[in-house]
Design goal:
Elements: E1 2-7, H1 15-29, E2 33-38, H2 52-56, H3 67-75, E3 78-86, E4 89-90, H4 92-99, E5 118-124, H5 134-145, E6 150-157, H6 165-176
Parallel strand pairs: 1-2, 1-3, 3-5, 5-6
Antiparallel strand pairs: 3-4
Helix pairs in contact: 1-6
Length: 178
């Protein structure tokens, strides 16, 4: 079993990173292999609309730090994506990352990855109302669901402070029971 984790926070000890690392810890303790990608420390280009992926039915050809990710994604059983909320939305680099999944739809707009990959989203926001940006997070996750992934869990940390003990336990359990 393999989990691919894509973390989008520039703060390695921020709440979205902390909760994501607990999901990862739980998964590892349950026997999962983990491939970790920290988008903020990677060179990731935006989709160029070259359509090579559509014409040839291949993964994105852009030569950047996402190149090994595509192989990991094709062989994974679960995908974890996380981001803090900046300006009412996930971070810009995470939107760029999401847009690159254009290559996973064929010319007929059908997914080119195995169906049923489990999806977990972890988000952190300063606003105390968890529902305030929920639709924005759902919009982000829907792009992955459109490629046949199945949402298992979405965490929304609120209030801007560190993750609570209860949130940490829930995140660990989500990883352990993947």
């Amino acid at each position: 079993m393999k989990l691919v984790a894509v973390l989008g926070s520039p703060h390695p000890n921020g709440p979205s990173s902390t909760l994501s690392k607990e999901v990862i810890r739980g998964a590892k303790e349950a026997g999962w292999d983990v491939a970790l990608y920290e988008i903020e420390s990677m060179h990731v280009r935006g989709c160029q609309g070259c359509r090579t992926c559509k014409q040839k039915g291949i993964d994105c050809i852009l030569p950047d730090d996402l190149a090994p990710y595509w192989k990991d994604l094709h062989t994974c059983d679960a995908l974890l994506v996380s981001s803090p909320n900046y300006a009412s939305m996930v971070t810009g680099p995470m939107i760029t990352y999401m847009n690159r999944h254009y290559c996973l739809l064929d010319q007929n707009w059908q997914p080119r990855i195995k169906p049923g990959i489990k999806l977990i989203g972890v988000f952190a926001q300063g606003a105390k109302d968890a529902s305030l940006y929920r639709k924005n997070y759902e919009w982000f996750l829907h792009d992955f669901e459109n490629r046949g992934m199945v949402l298992q869990r979405m965490f929304v940390h609120t209030g801007g402070g560190p993750a609570t003990e209860e949130e940490v336990k829930e995140a660990y359990q989500a990883g352990y029971t993947l």
